[in-house]
Amino acid sequence: MITTEQLYQLYLQHPVISTDTRKIAPGSLFFALKGDKFDANTFAQKAIEAGAAYAVIDNPDYQLGDQYLLVKDVLSTLQDLARHHRRQLHIPVIGLTGTNGKTTTKELINAVLSQHFKTQATQGNLNNHIGVPLTILTIDNTHEAAVIEMGANHQKEIELLCSISQPSHGMITNVGKAHLEGFGGVEGVKKGKGELYDYLQNAGDQPTAFVNSDDATLTEMAAARNLINVVYYGNDKSKTLISGQIIENDPLLTLEWTNNKTGDTYNVKTQLTGAYNLSNILAAISIGTYLNVTAAEINAGIEGYQPKNNRSQIVQTATNTLICDYYNANPSSMAVAIENIGKIDAKRKVLILGDMFEMGEESAVEHASVIQKALDTTVDERIFIGKDFEGQKPNNSAATFYPTAEDAIAGLKANPIKNSTILIKGSRGMALERLVELF
């Protein structure tokens, strides 16, 4: 069997990884990963025929020649190869996780750093046990910084991803109520996300942690580990490197931020909505400032970032302003999104909320809590979609409930909404993007 070092020498000659025979890059290394419904060992020959230089396999039945590299386990080999490659890199690697805002924060950090460095960052949602090593293996000796997003729905996953990405700088966006089923409740989420701080605490080269000073949970988690190098951002000017506040939310955010080391203050107009994005923006500004990106470059990065993938996206239609935030949803992100629309300066406001998934035993109480939050928020219309919300429908509530998205579509066609600012938010499985064409 081939060793990691031997495989690494081949990787240096063929530094492109393929895992899908439908997208084979000529001269690449094909890793025959197993899925729930397939065994890619069976596609190894097809990969070679499509132009792959080598196929990494873990079933000797498919070893048809010298181009077929037999290993004990393809997935762990991919991860080991990424670890080995990471050890050869001597650049800032920012690792981040959190319940909400991971992808937006990752994109903001990359937007800021890319004004000053040649960067590499996690693409799309490649933030798991396969995506992280694949991302690490796209970093080459021309890159000057990297931003690695790490997602998890069980404990020990962040620990694994840190062992692969070995961040020199790290941050947790927040700890909230998501994937409660997999984590085993809120305390399980806290422990799972805290694995990033555990890595920063125990790594020999004393990495730097960026911590939101306004978040009591994060500050307590950081203090409990006695992290050596901590940079704070938030409202407390005496404690933070970067502080800031929203000066406009209509619905796009304009911020005022201060470098508390120099005392200089700047304004930046963003293409983001949602007061909850303040901390995400300050995190990116803080990391950029710490890594000597100029204020002008930082503002250019923030101003130029356009949200995508249905995360806090603003869509203007002929008669409505839509806040499209239906990539995912959990109780924490629902709460801040509802709070935000309550604060937005708009003549008429509408909430359209879809079921939250992976809530486990907490589902009923959490859906009821979101309904109450919506009822307590000053908006003109409230619409709930899904069986979980309908199951918690209160008597005589000032809201409309639809058991399915199809029912909601029919209802909205019969009762169209016009001249409104509309928040559309729900879990990805609800496919609420189907509603957009109705407005």
What portion of residues is helical? 25-40%
Structural class: alpha/beta
CATH class of the largest domain, anyone?
A: Alpha Beta
- Would you report the number of β strands? 19
The CATH architecture of the largest domain can be given as: 3-Layer(aba) Sandwich
CATH topology (level 3) name of the largest domain: UDP-N-acetylmuramoyl-L-alanine:D-glutamate ligase
Strand fraction band? Answer: 15-25%
CATH homologous superfamily designation of the largest domain? Mur-like, catalytic domain
Quaternary state of this entry equals single chain
Strand order of the largest sheet: 6-7-5-8-9-10-11-12-13
Number of helices: 16
Cα radius of gyration in angstroms: 23 Å
Task: Give the termini distance in whole angstroms.
Answer: 59 Å
Q: Mean pLDDT across all residues, rounded? A: 93
Overall morphology: globular
Total discrete domains: 3
Could you please describe the fold and organization of this structure?
With 439 residues, this protein is an alpha/beta fold. It folds into three domains: 4-74, Udp-n-acetylmuramoylalanyl-d-glutamate--2,6- Diaminopimelate Ligase, Chain: A, domain 1 (3-Layer(aba) Sandwich), CATH 3.40.1390.10; 89-304, Mur-like, catalytic domain (UDP-N-acetylmuramoyl-L-alanine:D-glutamate ligase); 313-438, Mur ligase, C-terminal domain (Protein-Tyrosine Phosphatase, Chain A). The chain is built from 16 helices and 19 strands. The strands form three sheets. The chain has a nine-stranded mixed sheet, with helices on both faces. It has a six-stranded mixed sheet with strand order 14-15-19-16-17-18, with helices on both faces. A four-stranded parallel sheet has the order 1-2-3-4. It is globular. The relative contact order is 0.09.
